[in-house]
Amino acid sequence: MVMESAEISGRVVVAEEFGGAELERIGAEGDENRRSKRTVKDADGLWPVLCPGRADLDDPWINPMADGAPSLTLGCRRVLVCVAEIDLLRDRGRLYYDKLKQSGWDGEAEFMETEGEDHVFFLFKPHSSKAEEF
């Protein structure tokens, strides 16, 4: 059986890795007292490996909210954006959610934040109550 086409009805964005230029640090990224074990340097250092040849941290592949990036409107009807409270990049996830809702996209977006947890906590503690709840 060959499928002619498929329709994606929803998208889940979990522990996103959106970047952004150093001059535009937001939220916890610029907070020296943050509780996250990750650093801005850790997060920024992944991009040359994940997206070789991209110009900088405001390339739309890395920062979909950057000036000049394509529209955030999506081809699906629903999106769930999931972040962890003490994740260094939590505020970028929230920014993505806010910008998506403001984009003119007519779908339904939800935002979920897991309290007291860091980036990809569900991978490091898969049997914890919060991971199971997630």
UniProtKB/TrEMBL annotation:
It comes from Dendrobium nobile (Orchid). The lineage of its organism: Eukaryota, Viridiplantae, Streptophyta, Embryophyta, Tracheophyta. InterPro entries: AB_hydrolase_3 (IPR013094), AB_hydrolase_fold (IPR029058), Carboxylest/Gibb_receptor (IPR050466). This is Alpha/beta hydrolase fold-3 domain-containing protein. One of its GO terms (molecular function) is hydrolase activity. Residues 38-122 form the Alpha/beta hydrolase fold-3 domain.
